[in-house]
MFS transporter (Streptomyces luteireticuli), 432 residues
Amino acid sequence: MPPGPGDGQEPTVVRGRVRAVLAEPNFRLYLAGQGLSLVGTWMQAVAQPWLVLQLSHSGTVLGLSTAALFLPVLLLGPYGGLVADRAHKRRLLFLTQAAFLLLALGLGVLTVTGAVRLWQVFVIALLMGVVNAVDTPTRQTFVPELVGRALIRDAVSVNSVMVSATRAIGPGVAGVVIAVAGAGVCFLVNAASFVAVLASLALMRAGRLRPTPPVAREPGQVREGLRYVRGQMGLWAPLLMLAVVGTLAYEFQVVLPLLAVDDLHGDSRTYGYMTSAMALGAVAGGLAVTLRGRAGVLPLTCAAAGFGLAILAASLVPTLTAELVALPFVGAAGTFFLATVSTTLQMTSQPRFRGRVMALWSVMFMGSTPVGGPVVGAVADVLGARVALGLGALACALATVVGLLVLPRLPPDRRVLPHIVPEEDEPGAGRR
């Protein structure tokens, strides 16, 4: 079996690969811009559910508001991926990030002036979802253009560490800001943070990018992408596992506020502490992916099992102190699982299909929330937040079973991907 990424590699080799990724000036700019912006994004991710909970006092409505944010991804995701395959990605990112800025600014102004109503939050969430349907696959497929195919896994891993680090900062800051100044200030900070992304895109050196040739317009390209994925076991199996886990296990923006208030009798700061604790673990998970991460169905199956055990523990512990100990393990395992899915899909898919493949990643991860969010919210209303959290452990167990059923159908040398998949490789192991 060829070694997977990180298998048997000395720390000096890993550090050398990370240095090679960070040596790319465009990638450094991307990390800096995204890093600043994501602090604001995580602040809004905490403040928006809190605002909905204040306006509605209902776990079901909270779940529906989260569903509204991701419903467009479910409905439009494949078309967003096709737009990413057809477009010049840096120019498209200018448009999507500017749209996010305006929407966050609008929600912030409505909230700080006291004019905000629940229906307005839903409308803005839907509009953000429409933008996200295009933005997510575009950002995912822009990374290989920054560093080249040989460094995809390492770039995804470093990016995961950055995302996790901002996730550790943003929620904690948001909890304090909400308590002191209100949720609206979080939205305004998020709007300002998108300036950093726009500046980083503007400063990139076009000559150092490795753009994938845009796909020419032809009829039936969405169906073509779906057929391509359907014919590759190495693609549809990870996507199916992600769909199962994404539907019930990643609904933390629904279940954590309810857990903080109803079970642990806390406030917005308690919620912020819990989210930050999970995010600190996510940093560790990102570092683990960078140092020892592998891609393929076998590592993904192990990651799903570990994620399920961490969620199960978090759903059972009785006190806030114990919860703050358990949640970092949830964050680490969740980041490891998500990064493993992303890397597996990026390394397995052909460049001309990559936007459509990663659009399906967004559909299975974020697009599953319109189903899972209301379900988790309703379960929390009826049976309690701990039972709703425990649904995620069940979902991870089901994904683990899917992985175990698929593994025997894969040749041994394709269960763990080699460090670099050749540019035109369509692994035979991926076919039905």
